[in-house]
Design a protein that fits this description.
Number of domains: 2
Strand content: 15-25%
Number of helices: 10
Structural class: alpha+beta
CATH class of the largest domain: Alpha Beta
CATH topology of the largest domain: Beta-Lactamase
Shape: globular
GO molecular function: DNA binding; DNA-binding transcription factor activity
Order of helices and strands: HEHHEEHHEEEHHHHEEEH
Strand order of the largest sheet: 6-5-4-9-8-7
Protein name: IclR family transcriptional regulator
Helix content: 40-55%
Number of strands: 9
Pfam family, one: HTH_IclR
Keywords: DNA-binding, Transcription, Transcription regulation
Organism: Arthrobacter mobilis
Largest sheet: 6 strands, antiparallel
Length: about 260
Amino acid sequence: MAGEPVQGAQVVGRVAQLLRIVARAADGGAALPDIVRASGLTRPTVHRLLTSLAAEGLLDHSADTGTWHLGPELYVMGAVAANRFAIEDLARPSLRRLADETGESAFLSIRRGDETVCLVREEGSFPVRSFVLHEGVRFPLGVASAGLAIMAFLPEDEVERLLADTGPREGRFGPAHSAGNIRANLEATRRTGYTVNPGLILEGSWGMGAAIFDRNDRPAWALSLTGIEQRFRPERQEFLGRLLLEEAHKITQQLRRQPAGR
């Protein structure tokens, strides 16, 4: 395919892929070699598409650092689209309550395909924090507490498809994310209703999560708490888990009461 014209649906898919790669880089921006490597496309194709996206305002290019960033047009589109998705407004009171009652950092994440994306963060009062999770960061389902919480309540065939593709997860995040380890965590999550991530991404950085369900009773979002290991001792996990489940249930019920189309 290298060197051939990119047309039709293929170019749409490639544009979406590049936008997601740049979005994962967050504020630091993405360098061209990193984008080429992540996309699997040729350098000329990537550069041509990035330049076209920048011309439309969908990306920005920093002449100083050579990095690519999400552009102003995406911000405008996102602001308009936000009117159709009230989840952030519904979740903010719950995030504030979680942060106030626990002192930990509280987050809302959304499922996008086979990943979760962190949307909103509310900082707690405890001075020592974990910075693994932040707005815009993406993790594969089965990685991080939000992704585990969502994956645990997906249909079994979907779970098996995701578990069959754990090679890249294990390669990127370590042997703790093997299919067997993920399966064990999913089973524990189904028993308690909430998930516990015991420093699987970064040693000493723990997290807990609970799924939020849409009108069709599918897990589509998750609330989570993150912090240092000492704040997630077994004797405190039940307390944190109960708070997460209560707030996730409140948001689920609010979503179901909303008019269709919101």
